[in-house]
Design brief:
The protein is α/β, with parallel strands linked by helices. 38% of the residues lie in helices and 16% in strands. An eight-stranded parallel barrel has the order 1-2-3-4-5-6-7-8, surrounded by six helices. The longest helix is centred in the first third of the chain and has 18 residues. The chain is globular.
Length: 220
C-alpha cells in the first residue's frame, strides 16, 4: 500500500542568492530554518525551492547539495526549480516546474518519486495540472520587483477564483506577514516568499513572523 503524499507546504521559501546581501545562500537558509522553532509551524509544513536559474548545472548541483544538507537537518522538504536531474542527484523531495518546463505528466514519468509543483499565472494553467501536480504557486498577488516581468499583479479576486479549480495554491508576490489573513481568506493554502526572508537581517525572525501569521490566520 502506497504511503499518502505529504501535504503541500504552508510556507514556501524561494531562493535568490542575489538578495542575501553577500551572505552565502546556504547559511541564510540554515539561519531561516532555525525560525521554525516558535513559529507555530512544523518542519514538514515548510519547504525550500532552489530557484537560482542562472547557475551552471555543476554550480547548481553543488548549491543544491548544500541546501539538501541544511533542509534535511531541519526536517524540511527541498524542491529544485526545473532541473529534474539535479533534484534526483541530490536526493531532493520534488521539482518545481515553470511555464516553459516539461509538463507535470512528463516530469512524473521521468521521476515518479519526486513531488511535482508548478508555477501558474492563469487559471488555465491550474486546470491543466489538476491530478498531476501536488500544488501550484500562483501570483503575483501584489506588486514585487521579482515578478514584474510576468505582468501586473493578479490580485486577491483572481486568487479566489483560482482556488476554485481544486489544486492547492501557494500565493506569491509581494507578500509579507500582514497579508497572510487576506490571502488565506481568498483561498490560498499557504504562501511563498523570496526577499522577505532572503534579504532579512535576521532570517530566523522573518520566517518565525510568517509562521505565526499563518497559524493566527488559521484560527481566525
Amino acid at each position: 500500500m502506497n504511503s499518502p503524499s505529504p501535504a503541500p507546504p504552508r510556507l514556501y521559501l524561494v531562493t535568490d542568492r542575489h538578495a542575501t546581501g553577500g551572505r552565502p545562500l546556504a547559511a541564510v537558509i540554515e539561519a531561516a530554518l532555525r525560525g521554525i522553532a516558535g513559529s507555530g509551524l512544523a518542519p514538514e509544513e515548510v519547504a525550500v525551492q532552489l530557484r537560482d536559474k542562472d547557475l551552471s548545472g555543476r554550480a547548481l548541483t553543488e548549491l543544491a547539495r548544500a541546501l539538501r544538507d541544511k533542509t534535511a537537518a531541519a526536517g524540511v522538504r527541498l524542491f529544485v526549480n526545473d532541473r529534474i536531474d539535479v533534484a534526483l542527484s541530490v536526493g531532493a523531495d520534488g521539482v518545481h516546474l515553470g511555464g516553459a518546463s516539461l509538463s507535470p505528466a512528463d516530469a512524473q514519468a521521468i521521476a515518479p518519486a519526486l513531488a511535482i509543483a508548478i508555477s501558474a499565472h492563469q487559471i488555465d494553467d491550474l486546470r491543466a495540472a489538476v491530478g498531476q501536480a501536488a500544488f501550484a504557486v500562483f501570483g503575483p498577488i501584489y506588486d514585487t520587483p521579482s515578478k514584474r516581468r510576468y505582468g501586473p499583479p493578479v490580485g486577491l479576486a483572481a486568487l479566489e477564483a483560482a482556488a476554485g479549480v481544486g489544486l492547492p495554491l501557494i500565493a506569491i508576490g509581494g507578500i509579507d506577514p500582514g497579508h497572510t489573513g487576506d490571502v488565506r481568506r481568498s483561498g490560498a493554502y499557504g504562501l511563498a516568499c523570496i526577499r522577505a526572508v532572503m534579504a532579512a537581517g535576521d532570517p530566523a525572525s522573518a520566517l518565525r513572523a510568517f509562521g505565526r501569521a499563518i497559524t493566527t490566520a488559521d484560527r481566525s
